[in-house]
Amino acid sequence: MFKSLAVLAVSCIVGSHALAQAGPALDGSWSGYYVTQAGTKARAELSIQGSTGTWRAFIPQGPGRANPCFERAHPLELTAQPGGKFRMAVHASRTLSGCQDFQANLTLVDPRHIEGRFGDGRELQLERQ
Fold first, then answer.
1. Staple 34 to which of 24, 71, 87, 124, CB 3.0 to 4.6 Å?
2. Residue 17 backbone phi and psi in degrees, to 5
3. What is the DSSP string of 4-44?
4. 49-91: per-residue pLDDT in tens?
């Protein structure tokens, strides 16, 4: 009996760790648009594998293009939340000193679409590539 309980406990721990990962639901490449804090439309590209990946943002025109934090791949971490939701943390400061880290809440709408919202309320929409 003790052996069965030990096996069950280990299974629960392994299973809960697996659920904490973003997993294959978001694996792959994603692209979409959002509005920067300065009000400029920007394109975002995400590459996700498991619970990690990269975030790159591009500003097609305007003064924001001179910002060295754009057009760089920044590391990101995903944490699965209940109901097909994820918490994305982008660690831009690890890539270049002075770049701002940020977070967003993401929802997998369907296998090809993610909707999200940054902490300040700005929206993000992504499509699987």
1. 124
2. -65, -40
3. HHHHHHHHHHHHHHHHHS--TTS-EEEEEEEE-TTS-EEEE
4. 999 999 999 998 777 778 899 999 999 999 999 988 999 999 9
Which secondary structure element, helix H or strand E, spans residue 3, and what is its range? helix 2-20
Strand pairing of 123-128 and 113-118?
A: antiparallel
Residues 6+ apart with CB under 8 A from 47: 28, 29, 30, 53, 54, 73
Confidence of residue 2 (pLDDT cuts 50, 70, 90): very low
Altogether, the residues listed in the chain come to a count of 129
Residue appearing with tokens 């918490």: 87
Question: What does the alpha-carbon distance between residue 120 and residue 129 come to, in Å, rounded to a whole number?
Answer: 27
